[in-house]
User: Which sequence fits this backbone?
């Protein structure tokens, strides 16, 4: 038996089916095993889905359904399982799991690790109350604040920060460095860095940076000196640098260039030639031949050295420059880490990214078995899903478990697809799936089996075949390009795309009926028309930061008209998805469609809460309540009030807007119904959540259903659970996050709408029709999105400080980090190829792509890749529309069990008048004011009342007092006062009889009356047919008191007690003032 | 079918015909007792003494004679013992560990485990067989654990050392704590149970105070409880009534019946086991809705529908909240038809407004530094709802805030927070307590003040009493802490104390309990025990919420717990399952709601109970059980923003013509977006001047401008000598600028402001250097911040209008006047010959403005040679940017053209046929203050 099977599963190849099947193979053979199998997924959602898939299968199998699954199980277990056995065991397992659900271990990797960490929190000196903070941004911005604060007493840090600011300013980027700091912090959390063995020492870094400066200066000086020397020699021979062949473009320019730009100038071919072949120093019949020949012996070594220095010799210098570029990042890293650590400790939180790293640090030692034992991990089999997104550290954490399991010959499973690895930025390490796992388990390599899931169960034949060929050719193109770029280590790419799984087999259910169309669109760069006066507004528009290119416009048009056609063919909006790279692109296409009256579109943008006028209205109300002087929010309230809440067609907008300028009298009655404005001010006293409910009621926003409002309320609800804050805090939060996903509606499924989403979000989903309107993006790091890479080298003086943060750019190629640069480039290509792969494998039936016509030789973008691939694969003619397959009508889908319904309105109403709650607190607090003299008679009475309730006889005094103290009702000092009073009561001749022993005491016991009323006399005592009833009072004597006691007596007599004495005990702070009154 | 309580009453009445006055009934909750009494009243003809009703805890306490201290006292007691072993631990850190340790001890006693054996420190694996009397699975688990611990005999790692260090002390700590508590007559809960179970004779004697004890509706008793109950039953002093159903007791593996199958007390025929599931018809609605509010609203609407059905009685309906935080959303969503609402649950103290206020106050105090509070902390505190109660009409607070918004203090010292005009409560709120005592007294004072004003302002409202209750709870915990700190002489300074408050409040629940028992019952999940309702609505049926997650941390490793038969997740799950199925047992209409949102922590996965019902219950009793599924998802349509257009009415035209002075920025604004020009310049809407502590463009610009003004005012000729003098003045100029622009900032140059100050110093210095080194030096500074007003007639026959502008700096150099502007923003180098764009494209804003100043200056001082220049502060290294090619001077032609175009612009502004409308370019809206009005 294989102890580890690694499945490579391309898109749509029934990965989940396989996982479930493997799970069932284990538990159906031995049902109790469910407790010992751990299935690990990446998201909570995936875990929940996996659980329900397993349960559904079990329940289906138990009922004799799911024949396909049953057949595979029988086949793959060599008959160990039979139909009958499967039926019985499925029922048994289902019942076992359902009734020991906590033992049903399908979990995300984070929550599994978290459980382990908690079990050893104490030993790791973590706070017990440790919480997982998912909101890393929030933490980082807090830590950044702290960093600023710590500048005060940390001159080195202050220095770095200043350097950072001035560096940025010299790049014309402004003085705000918060984003930069947050970016560094984020980098430092990255597991690759977080697990390095290195401590930053600010002083050492300072020295290091000085060293780098020196390298830089020395080198430049050296080059300059050479250039000057060369010039001098030329002078001596009466030559000018232009006197060499090609003059101003000749190799002689090397001298002035060396002087002017010693660190940056490039060595051209002519200079190279000149250094090697001195016969080319002059042309035939050159008039200056003699002089040149004369100076040549002196000049040649200089040229040689310069060429060397600017080429091979520059690596050292280049590296220093590159490292210097971000040295300040390095400088502040240490303090940032320190602050981060403090923050975690103070707040008792762990960042989600900390977990696997903490564990990693433990696992490095021999503690592993102990750690997992302590946590009670009892798993024998591990099934790991989406393995391409697993990070190195995560694998290292799991490694001991898996290898231990393998050593006992237990079955384990890994499933993943290197082609769908698009989470490298979250540390996903695709190499693990390809070779890493095997390499890390050398002693078990014979027990590892690689298998491929080859059949595509998702898409129609034409789509599967298109993708098969497409990615075969795409790989060839990319490899050729990279080899041209002198990158040769391409195993990663090859292995990812040339695995057994790459060529998919069409499944029997999905024969013909697929269709692929890629339109190539005119890509004229909108030229700026120079002629004055002809400038149209549109042309100007193209100059804005993100140019709206012509082809994008055409692509939108194309999508729109295709949708119209598809509708006519019988497809519904819900069948279609539009995949984009960024939310911004999403907004472009969404707005286009909406402008053209296709409103059934759900896009990240249209889901933003701030796009709802009602929400904006509520926000402006809150702003107004926070600062009633804010004229903009006042105007905003009124504007929305008269346009959406209480629409008046005749509203005079000017009157409305101009009402609130600062000059007008703020006391003036507002045009809003006066009472409402007033009420708003009053409502500041309400807690935030309640406030929103009341606002809905006041403004009648609860009469209609409104997804945005409801989500807004949920956001507020969540906010107060977490942030403990009021209006002002919320507004601040809102300002910060209003444009983030946090303030967006949650995408509901099953809506008949076109879904616009990013490719990343589409992973794991499928749609009958998929559009990709903008098939053009760079496959290389983009210059306008600077990225930092942490790199290492063995060269001195860099080595001890590695890894070092350097900007990722082409300059890296000429440094000691060139290998890393090339590797990174290859990764970029893989990432982007994968992205395309994910997108192209989403459609079931049809794919529509739109791409600008590019005339690039280089395959450096998707737009350049597409035509090259189509040419190579399909002999496609340049710039035609590419078409494949034939359009087939929509496939009828089975209906979902439950169609979602919308609520009829937002139910919201007051509760204050309807609720009843017994309170302990009322009046009691005053009883404990610090100032004794403050204490009112009534309060003391309440206390003593409570005390006497616990006292049957003298013996109970101590424990009664003690209990009161534990409840936080009295302080020790106050106990004395109370005790004095109690002592008086129990000892004084007038009252002591009440506390004698030998009585049967009913202390605040209830008497039930048939009509349901309950009487609770303070104290009733019985002895041999005789009874005493007492009530305690603290106020002045009142006739009602007597009446009450008489009523008690009356009821008692109804209960058969004949001899009753009746008393009222008037309690007073001063024992001596206390008196008892007997009633007739 | 009778409810459990009804059945019990009938049974007890027949067993005790002489009345129940001497009987004690032990229920799982106090709540059940209340309901019991209420039901009992229906069965009597004349007054009777109610039986004594106790919870299990109270029953055992009564039998033991020990007092159970509150949690904090226990932790303090434990800390006293613990300190002798671990002197370095601070109390706030210990608090949590201490609570966990007590919980462990508590379980050891409840499960009557021999602590000495449990806490054995195994040095050699061989010992295990001898030391423990286990075999089978338990022994295996135990062995595995110790094997993992001992490893291959290598030296212990730090982690293991840390474990064993605590482990080897635990038995001593445990015994010592018990000795100490015993001395005082105290005990923690589990200790009470054990005492009672260990001293059966005494316990029995104590139990005789009642004629009979009835245990009703209990489940999952620990060994100590079982032992006591069994004994009392054997003595004929007690009887047990269970509430079980054959559906779960007689199904193998069904966790809800585990106790009944395993306990000695329920072997054979026990009282009572019913067949309710098999006989009663139930309609179960399983409803998915998004998030907390979505569920609350959905539940409300379902309830509304339900309430319209004939025969609906609110009292027979329970709305159960496994997540108590949902109380307020739910309260707001109760349909009007329901007139009375009754709430019974433990509401988390940390979710109350008072806890949030205390948290904010704590943060404000924590950030107190150098004699001042931080403005944003102060404002957060002052915006808290409760603070609004402290003043009659809030006028003083309002005035103070207005002042604050205008001036923008960043650090608030006593100077800002006291005086005759500030609200009177400031003196209580903005104290600076130092010692533990002071801090607690400070908070107590605050709470008192709040309580009083809330009570007086909202007397008699239910909300007020709810809130007083919350405040009271906070108050009494504080008070308790105060006492203990004094008693145990624990000095807790600053941070620690604030942290401790948060720790303590995090675990406290306020026991809300509604009385009388009328109307709709809103309950916590555990409060439903032993009660029955016809209609049951349960929210938050999601894994992770229902069943509630188990407290999983313990000092005792899992394997060891398991070996000793201590509480594990099986027990926990079994309890919750029992409560769940028992609650549904007699119910007829059941609504199970769950959160459909997968992104939130508590959402996505349906509760196991829903799956059990779907997979098993219905299949088992298809006749009785009908299930309906529903999914709630709101319809979404992208909201369309309304276009806004303002017509130029005569009134508006009048404002435009008469009132206005036109500055470059107002006109730029017009070019950017006509509507925003209207809103700002005509309607007069202004942003409030919020204080912002970040290095923010506006602040940077303001301070830099001011600093340059300070430095160059009266500077005159910038020769080398003057340069030397000015250099020394830079610091003063910059600091002065800070003080003028942001009063208060100068006191605390730290953090961002410190950096900002440094940057500005550097920039001012660079600017000065640049000026001193100008190739054509020396420069003569003519004017700084020169204000110019210019009447401008844009059209024949129209009244001239006023243009105005403030020129950052005018200097003279080599016979020309230079009009200079300091630009803090990005300076795009645009072609100055394309004057068209000045008036249509905001990207040319800077050029527009400089030319505008050029025009103002040349009209005011005719016949001067003018050069326009910009200091790009973001790229000062590149020197002054002269927008004209080859640094040329401004020509008359250009001035004329600019003037013409400007006139055209004004003609357009005053043209009544054009309107003020929104810009077509949405990217221009990004930084617009009116975004929310336009919906852009
Ligand atoms: S949001 Fe846009 S359209 Fe509205 S006023 Fe501002 S700039 Fe103009």
Assistant:
């Amino acid at each position: 038996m294989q102890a580890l099977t690694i499945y490579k599963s391309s898109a749509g190849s029934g990965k989940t089916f396989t996982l479930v099947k493997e799970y069932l193979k284990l538990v159906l053979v031995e049902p109790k095993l469910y407790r010992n199998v751990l299935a690990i997924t990446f998201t909570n959602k995936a875990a929940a889905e996996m659980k329900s898939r397993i349960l559904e299968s079990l329940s289906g199998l138990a009922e004799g359904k799911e024949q396909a699954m049953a057949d595979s199980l029988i086949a793959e277990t060599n008959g160990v399982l039979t139909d009958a056995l499967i039926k019985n065991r499925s029922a048994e397992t289902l019942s076992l799991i359902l009734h020991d659900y906590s033992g049903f271990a399908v979990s995300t990797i984070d929550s599994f690790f978290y459980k382990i960490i908690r079990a050893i929190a104490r030993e790791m000196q973590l706070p017990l109350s440790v919480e997982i903070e998912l909101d890393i941004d929030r933490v980082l911005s807090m830590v950044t604040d702290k960093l600023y604060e710590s500048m005060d007493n940390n001159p080195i840090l202050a220095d770095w920060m200043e350097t950072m600011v001035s560096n940025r300013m010299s790049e014309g980027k402004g003085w705000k460095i918060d984003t930069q700091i947050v970016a560094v912090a984020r980098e430092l959390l990255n597991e690759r860095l977080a697990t390095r063995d290195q401590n930053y020492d600010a002083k050492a870094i300072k020295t290091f940076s000085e060293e780098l400066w020196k390298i830089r200066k020395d080198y430049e000086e050296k080059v300059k000196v050479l250039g000057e020397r060369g010039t001098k020699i030329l002078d001596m021979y009466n030559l000018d640098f232009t006197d060499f062949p090609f003059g101003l473009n000749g190799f002689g320019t090397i001298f002035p260039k060396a002087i002017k730009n010693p660190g940056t100038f490039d060595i051209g071919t002519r200079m190279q030639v000149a250094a090697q072949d001195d016969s080319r120093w002059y042309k035939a019949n050159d008039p200056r031949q003699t002089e040149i020949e004369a100076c040549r012996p002196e000049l040649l070594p200089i040229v040689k050295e310069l060429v060397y220095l600017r080429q091979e010799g520059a690596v050292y210098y280049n590296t220093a420059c590159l490292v210097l570029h971000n040295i300040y990042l390095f400088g502040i890293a240490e303090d940032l880490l320190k602050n981060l650590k403090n923050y975690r400790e103070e707040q008792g939180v762990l960042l989600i990214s900390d977990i696997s790293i903490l564990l990693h640090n433990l696992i490095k030692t021999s503690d592993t078995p102990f750690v997992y034992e302590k946590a009670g991990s009892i798993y024998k089999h591990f099934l790991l899903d989406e393995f391409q997104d697993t990070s190195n550290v995560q694998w290292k954490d799991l490694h001991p478990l898996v290898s231990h399991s393998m050593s006992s010959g237990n079955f384990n499973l890994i499933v993943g697809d290197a082609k769908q690895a698009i989470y490298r930025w979250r540390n996903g390490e695709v190499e693990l799936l390809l070779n890493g796992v095997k390499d890390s388990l050398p002693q078990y390599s014979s027990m590892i089996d690689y298998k491929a899931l080859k059949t595509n169960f998702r898409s129609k034949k034409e789509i599967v075949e298109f993708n098969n060929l497409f990615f075969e050719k795409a790989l060839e193109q990319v490899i050729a390009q990279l080899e041209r770029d002198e990158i040769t280590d391409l195993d990663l790419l090859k292995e990812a795309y040339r695995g057994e799984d790459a060529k998919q087999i069409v499944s029997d259910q999905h024969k013909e009926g697929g269709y692929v169309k890629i339109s190539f669109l005119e890509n004229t760069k909108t030229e700026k028309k120079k002629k004055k006066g002809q400038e149209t507004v549109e042309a100007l528009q193209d100059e804005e930061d993100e140019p709206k290119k012509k082809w994008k416009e055409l692509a939108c048009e194309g999508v729109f008209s295709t949708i119209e056609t598809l509708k006519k063919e019988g497809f519904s909006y819900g069948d279609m998805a539009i995949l984009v790279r960024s939310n911004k692109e999403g907004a472009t296409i969404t707005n286009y469609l909406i402008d053209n009256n296709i409103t059934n579109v759900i896009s990240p943008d249209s889901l933003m809460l701030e796009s709802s006028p009602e929400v904006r209205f509520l926000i402006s109300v809150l702003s107004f309540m926070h600062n009633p002087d804010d004229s903009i929010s006042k105007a905003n309230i009124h504007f929305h009030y008269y346009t959406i809440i209480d629409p008046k067609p005749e509203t005079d907008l000017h009157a409305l807007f101009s009402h609130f300028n600062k000059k007008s009298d703020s006391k003036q009655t507002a045009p809003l119904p006066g009472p409402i404005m007033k009420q708003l001010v009053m409502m500041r006293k309400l807690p935030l959540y309640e406030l929103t409910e009341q606002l809905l009621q006041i403004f009648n926003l609860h009469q209609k259903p409104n997804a945005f409002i409801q989500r807004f309320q949920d956001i507020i609800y969540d906010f107060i659970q977490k942030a403990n804050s009021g209006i002002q805090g919320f507004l601040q939060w809102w300002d910060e996050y209003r444009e983030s996903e946090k303030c967006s509606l949650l995408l509901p499924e099953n809506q008949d709408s076109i879904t616009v989403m990013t490719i990343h979000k589409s992973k794991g989903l499928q749609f009958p029709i998929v559009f990709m309107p903008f098939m053009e993006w760079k496959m290389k790091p983009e210059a306008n999105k600077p990225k930092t890479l942490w790199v290492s080298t063995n060269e001195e003086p860099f080595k001890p400080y590695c890894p070092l943060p350097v900007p990722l750019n082409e300059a890296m190629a000429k440094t000691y980090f060139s290998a890393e640069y090339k590797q990174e480039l290859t990764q970029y290509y893989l990432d982007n190829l994968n992205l395309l792969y994910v997108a192209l494998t989403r459609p079931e039936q049809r794919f529509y792509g739109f791409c600008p016509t590019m005339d690039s030789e280089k395959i450096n973008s998707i737009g350049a890749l597409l035509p090259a691939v189509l040419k190579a694969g399909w002999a496609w003619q340049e710039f035609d529309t590419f078409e494949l397959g034939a359009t087939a009508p929509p496939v009828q889908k089975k209906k979902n069990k439950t169609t979602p319904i919308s609520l009829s309105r937002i139910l919201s109403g007051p509760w204050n008048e309807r609720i009843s709650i017994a309170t302990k607190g009322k009046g009691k607090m005053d009883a404990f004011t610090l100032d004794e003299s403050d204490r009112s008679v009534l309060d003391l009475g309440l206390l003593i009342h409570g005390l006497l309730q616990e006292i049957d006889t003298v013996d109970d005094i101590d424990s009664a007092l003690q209990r009161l103290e534990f409840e936080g009702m009295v302080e020790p000092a106050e106990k004395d006062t109370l005790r004095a009073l109690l002592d008086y009561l129990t000892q004084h001749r007038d009252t002591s009889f009440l506390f004698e022993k030998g009585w049967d005491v009913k202390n605040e016991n209830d008497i039930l009356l048939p009509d349901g009323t309950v009487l609770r006399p303070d104290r009733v005592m019985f002895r041999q047919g005789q009874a005493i009833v007492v009530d305690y009072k603290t106020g002045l004597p009142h006739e009602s008191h007597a009446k009450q006691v008489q009523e008690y007596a009356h009821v008692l007599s109804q209960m058969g007690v004949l001899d009753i004495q009746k008393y009222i005990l008037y309690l007073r702070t001063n024992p001596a003032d206390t008196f008892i009154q007997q009633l007739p | 079918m009778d409810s459990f309580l009804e059945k019990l009453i009938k049974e007890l009445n027949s067993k005790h015909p002489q009345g129940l006055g001497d009987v004690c009934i032990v229920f799982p909750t106090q709540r059940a007792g209340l309901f019991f009494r209420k039901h009992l009243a229906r069965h009597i003809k004349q007054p009777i003494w109610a039986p004594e009703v106790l919870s299990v805890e109270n029953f055992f306490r009564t039998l033991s004679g020990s007092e159970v201290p509150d949690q904090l006292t226990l932790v303090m007691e434990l800390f006293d013992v613990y300190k002798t072993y671990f002197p370095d631990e601070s109390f706030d850190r210990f608090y949590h560990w201490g609570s966990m340790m007590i919980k462990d001890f508590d379980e050891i006693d409840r499960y009557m485990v021999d602590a000495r054996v449990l806490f054995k420190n195994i040095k050699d694996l061989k010992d295990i067989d001898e030391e423990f009397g286990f075999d089978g699975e338990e022994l295996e688990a135990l062995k595995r654990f110790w094997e993992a611990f001992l490893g291959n005999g290598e030296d212990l790692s730090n982690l293991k050392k840390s474990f064993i260090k605590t482990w080897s002390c635990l038995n001593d700590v445990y015994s010592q704590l018990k000795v100490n508590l015993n001395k005082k007559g105290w005990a923690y809960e589990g200790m009470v149970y054990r005492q009672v179970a260990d001293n059966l004779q005494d316990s029995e004697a104590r139990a005789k105070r009642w004629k009979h004890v009835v245990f009703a509706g209990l489940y999952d008793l620990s060994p100590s409880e079982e032992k006591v109950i069994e004994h009392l039953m054997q003595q004929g002093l007690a009887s047990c009534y269970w509430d079980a159903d054959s559906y779960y007791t007689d199904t193998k593996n069904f966790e809800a019946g585990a106790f009944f199958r395993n306990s000695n007390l329920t072997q054979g025929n026990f009282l009572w086991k019913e067949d309710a599931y098999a006989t009663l018809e139930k309609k179960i609605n399983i409803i998915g809705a998004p998030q907390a509010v979505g569920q609350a609203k959905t539940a409300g609407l379902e309830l509304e529908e339900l309430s319209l059905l004939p025969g609906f009685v609110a009292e027979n309906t329970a709305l159960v909240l496994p997540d108590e935080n949902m109380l307020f959303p739910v309260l707001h969503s109760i349909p009007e038809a329901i007139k009375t609402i009754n709430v019974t649950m433990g509401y988390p103290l940390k979710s109350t407004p008072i806890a949030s206020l205390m948290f904010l106050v704590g943060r404000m105090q924590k950030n107190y530094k150098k004699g001042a509070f931080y403005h944003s902390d102060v404002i957060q505190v002052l915006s808290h709802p409760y603070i609004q109660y402290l003043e009659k009409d809030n006028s003083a607070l309002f005035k103070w805030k207005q002042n604050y918004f205008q001036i923008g203090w960043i650090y608030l010292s006593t100077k800002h927070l006291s005086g005759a005009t500030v609200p009177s409560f400031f003196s209580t709120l903005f104290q600076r307590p130092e010692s533990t005592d002071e801090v607690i007294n400070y908070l107590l004072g605050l709470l008192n003040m709040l309580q009083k004003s809330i009570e007086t302002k909202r007397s008699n409202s239910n909300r007020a009493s709810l809130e007083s209750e919350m405040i009271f709870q906070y108050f009494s915990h504080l008070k308790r802490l105060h006492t203990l700190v004094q008693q145990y002489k624990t000095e807790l300074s600053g941070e620690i104390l604030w942290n401790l408050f948060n720790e303590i409040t995090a675990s406290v629940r306020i026991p809300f309990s509604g009385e009388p028992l009328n109307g709709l019952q809103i309950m916590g999940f555990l409060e439903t025990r032993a009660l029955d309702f016809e209609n049951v609505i349960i929210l938050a049926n999601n894994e992770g919420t229902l069943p509630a997650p188990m407290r999983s941390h313990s000092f005792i490793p899992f394997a060891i717990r398991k070996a000793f038969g201590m509480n594990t997740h099986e027990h926990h799950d079994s309890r919750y399952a029992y409560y769940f199925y028992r609650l549904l047992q007699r119910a007829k209409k059941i609504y199970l709601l769950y959160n459909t949102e997968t992104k939130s922590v508590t959402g996505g996965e349906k509760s196991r109970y829903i799956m059990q019902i779907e997979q098993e219950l219905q299949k088992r009793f298809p006749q009785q059980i009908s299930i309906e599924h529903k999914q709630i998802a709101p319809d979404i349509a992208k909201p369309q923003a309304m276009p806004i257009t303002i017509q130029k009415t005569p009134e508006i035209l009048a404002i435009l013509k008469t009132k206005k002075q036109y500055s470059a920025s107002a006109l730029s604004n017009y070019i950017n977006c006509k509507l925003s020009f209207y809103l700002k310049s005509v309607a007069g809407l202004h942003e409030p001047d919020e204080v912002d502590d970040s290095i923010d463009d506006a602040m940077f610009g303001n301070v830099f401008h001011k600093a340059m003004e300070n430095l160059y005012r009266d500077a005159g000729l910038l020769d080398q000598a003057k340069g030397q003098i000015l250099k020394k003045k830079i610091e003063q100029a910059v600091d002065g600028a800070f003080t003028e622009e942001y009063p208060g900032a100068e006191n605390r140059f730290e953090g961002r402001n410190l950096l900002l100050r440094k940057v500005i110093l550097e920039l001012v210095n660079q600017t000065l250097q640049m000026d001193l080194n100008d190739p054509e030096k020396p420069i003569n500074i003519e004017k700084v911040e020169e204000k110019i007003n210019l009447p401008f007639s844009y059209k024949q026959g129209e009244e001239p209008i006023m243009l105005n502008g403030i020129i950052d700096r005018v200097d003279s150099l080599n016979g020309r006047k230079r009009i200079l502007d300091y630009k803090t923003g990005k300076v795009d180098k645009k072609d100055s010959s394309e004057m068209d764009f000045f008036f249509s494209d905001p990207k040319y804003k800077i050029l527009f403005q400089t030319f505008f100043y050029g025009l103002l200056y040349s009209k005011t001082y005719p016949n001067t040679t003018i050069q326009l220049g910009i200091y790009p502060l973001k790229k000062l290294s590149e020197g002054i940017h002269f927008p004209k090619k080859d640094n040329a001077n401004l020509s008359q032609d250009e001035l004329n053209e600019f003037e013409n175009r400007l006139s055209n612009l004004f003609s357009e502004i005053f043209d009544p046929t054009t309107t003020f409308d929104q810009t077509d370019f949405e990217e221009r809206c990004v930084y617009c203050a009116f975004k929310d009005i336009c919906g852009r």
